[in-house]
Design goal:
Blueprint lengths: L4 E13 L2 E12 L5 E5 L4 H12 L6 E5 L4 E5 L1 E7 L14 H15 L3 H17 L2 E7 L4 H14 L2 E5 L1 E2 L15 H18 L6 E3 L2 E2 L7 H14 L3 E5 L3 H10 L2 H4 L6 H7 L7 E5 L5 H10 L2 E4 L1 H6 L7 H6 L4 E3 L11 H15 L18 H15 L17 E5 L1 E2 L16 E2 L5 H11 L5 E6 L2 E5 L2
Parallel strand pairs: 1-4, 6-7, 7-8, 8-10, 9-11, 12-13, 13-14, 14-15, 17-18
Antiparallel strand pairs: 1-2, 2-3, 5-16, 16-19, 19-20
Helix pairs in contact: 3-4, 4-5, 5-6, 9-10, 13-14
The structure holds guanine and fe (iii) ion.
């Protein structure tokens, strides 16, 4: 909880629409002790803010903490990582030439099993929370492991450290695909363990100010159909959000077809999305990671149910899963956000995911049959669009669009102060600010500076990070 009212001054940049950033120059933003934005005043220098705005609010000048963006700095909404596996962080960058299914068996399951050691879990979770915050991730939808105490520990650590998070205890009970030492004994046992973790997280944060449980069937192949059905019922009963993986890799899709024929699911066909739908898992509160190889029919079903997609371009590239056609999803009205998918993805940075989304969209231009008259160039995602996905899109994916993602009165202050290197007359960066690889000469427009940040930025540019008004990271 923030302890003082705060006044932020300078340039604020946020998404106004999918393809439009808004630049609020010389603006003052007031944030109250609860971390809520109470005013946004344009053309409001410090003097005016102190002399006219603060008295109107009844805020005493001496009790207000003032944070001013310097030259080359701007405030930007915190990033939302809509898909990340906290226990897999030690494996970031370790995947060799594997693809999804053998990657899970070789690298992922053994590491996840080992985190039932709570000392090890604490070490890993402490680090991944620190690391993601330092990259500007103010909110993350985490997959934990099947272990309840370790999952609850992740929630405790996020809560204490002040990162907004959805925390999912992973469910998997299918004996032919889940390792003997890493699976639930039955669908019922899986649901009972999930309820236990939900109860812990709800007790920790009853009004879900920061932390919320999320129902997490790992994916169809490691689930029995009864488990999927029972988790669908649990989601309906609790109105909690759901997260899982969908249509990431071709071998995975083939496996789903053998494990879930219509005779098992009662669905009209053997589509992957149809399996989740038959179990009641495709809802407006469902986050589907990947959705790389969706058929037209599946995309229509996902759109009809209002389920959301977490686009994970870094992971899809690393594991050779394929390239999601984000434009087609957006054109259908499917809400999309970005996910790092650590450690399918090797980088914990949402900025890196945004960059990867731009790059992958440029490969998509050359994919598939060329249809006469089709404008292939439309597949390309712009800097503005990927930043929308990283903030407002992500907020909608995790059901927080009323609370975070942009700067407006009534929204919560989840934000980052971004600093770029300002190059002086002597060719050296002005002052002691490290701009990392982003050097700004002064003649660039602000849209060009933001583009330079997207393509060359990293955590050296993330100077300060706040969640709900609380300072949770300051770069040394
Ligand atoms: N599908 C099932 N489990 C996983 C996982 O841990 N990571 C990714 N990327 N895909 C999955
Ligand atoms: Fe994943």
């Amino acid at each position: 909880m923030a302890t003082k009212n705060k006044l932020f001054l300078g340039l604020f940049v946020h998404s106004k629409a999918l393809n439009e950033l808004e630049y609020l120059h010389d603006t003052a933003v007031g944030v109250d002790k609860e971390g809520k934005i109470t005013f946004v005043e344009r053309d409001c220098a410090e003097k005016k803010a102190r002399e006219t705005v603060l008295p109107q609010l009844g805020w005493k000048d001496a009790e207000v903490e003032v944070v001013k963006a310097k030259e080359g700095q701007f405030f930007f909404p915190g990033f939302i990582d809509t898909h990340i596996h906290a226990p897999q962080y030690p494996n970031a960058g370790i995947f060799g030439n594997s693809t999804l299914l053998n990657w899970l068996d070789t690298y992922t399951f053994p590491l996840e099993v080992s985190l039932s050691d709570l000392a090890k879990a604490r070490r890993v979770y402490t680090r991944v929370i620190h690391k993601t915050l330092s990259h500007g991730t103010t909110c993350a939808a985490y997959f934990a492991t099947i272990d309840v105490p370790a999952t609850n520990l992740l929630a405790d650590l996020c809560h204490a450290r002040g990162q907004r998070a959805l925390i999912g205890r992973v469910c998997m009970d299918e004996p032919s695909t889940s390792p003997a030492n890493y699976r639930d004994e039955s669908a019922e046992a899986s649901v009972a363990a999930t309820r236990e973790s939900i109860a812990h997280i709800r007790a920790l944060d009853p009004t879900h100010t920061l932390i919320r449980p999320i129902i997490t069937p790992r994916f169809a192949p490691t689930s029995t159909f009864p488990l999927l059905v029972q988790l669908g019922a649990l989601a309906a009963e609790t109105t909690l959000p759901i997260q899982t993986h969908l249509s990431e890799n071709r071998a995975e899709i083939a496996l789903v077809k053998t494990l879930f024929p219509p005779t098992v699911t009662g669905a009209a066909d053997d589509s992957y999305a149809g399996v989740y739908d038959a179990a009641g898992l495709l809802t407006g509160r469902t986050v589907l990671a990947h959705a790389v190889h969706l058929t037209t029919g599946e995309a229509a079903l996902v759109a009809r149910r209002g389920a959301k997609v977490s686009h994970c371009p870094g992971s899809n590239t690393a594991l050779g899963s394929g390239a999601a056609r984000v434009r087609r999803l957006l054109d259908r009205g499917i809400v999309c956000g970005l996910g790092t998918d650590v450690s399918g993805g090797f980088s914990p940075s949402v900025l890196e995911a945004a960059r990867a989304a731009v790059m992958v969209s440029r490969h998509v231009v050359f994919m598939g049959e060329e249809v006469a008259g089709e404008d292939r160039e439309r597949e390309k995602l712009s800097v503005e669009e990927v930043l929308f996905l990283a903030t407002r899109g992500g907020a909608e994916v995790v059901g927080l669009e009323e609370r975070v993602g942009k700067f407006a009165v009534g929204m919560e202050w989840d934000a980052q102060l971004v600093g770029l290197g300002v190059v002086g007359e002597d060719g050296e960066v002005v002052g002691d600010e490290d701009g990392g690889d982003v050097d700004v000469f002064g003649w660039e427009t602000w849209p060009d500076r933001v583009a330079k940040w997207v393509y060359n930025g990293d955590d050296r540019n993330t100077k300060m990070v706040w969640v709900k008004g609380r300072l949770v990271h300051a770069r040394k």
